[in-house]
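Document type: protein sequence-to-structure record

Subject area: structural biology

Format: plain text, a pair of labelled lines:
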Amino acid sequence: MSHELRPALEQAAQTLGLSLSDTQLDQLLDYLGLIQKWTKVYNLTAVRDPQAMLVQHLVDSLSLLPALRRHLAGRPGLRLMDVGSGGGLPGVVVAICEPGLDVSCVDAVAKKASFIQQVAAELRLPNLHGLHSRVEALQEPPFDIITSRAY
């Protein structure tokens, strides 16, 4: 799947003005593959078509990066919380593309938080964390940035 979608992903990144490394592109496509695999068991997304997943999940999540990068400029060590992250959108995409940003994907559903932890391990993303909690019960230090796609 990843080889077929790579040109479309590269074009979308270019259109958004994003410069992504080969490693980041590979990680994004590997992440998409993990979503496809785990959705068969855990129903992470209703979208099943790989091309639709690319557009509706990856490209949609990538679209916040230009504004996020402007916000991050010259501000190292910030923490981002993705509320109601589900399968990790946009949190995982942000963690891949901004390795200096500490990203916590928070979801009230344990299997979704476990999926994020698995993604972090498989894609070797030490800056990505899956947290199983309702956001109002979360016991974490304050976050600098909060995102939410479908909360």
Observations:
- The first strand starts at residue 79 and ends at 83.
- The radius of gyration is 14 Å.
- The mean pLDDT is 93.
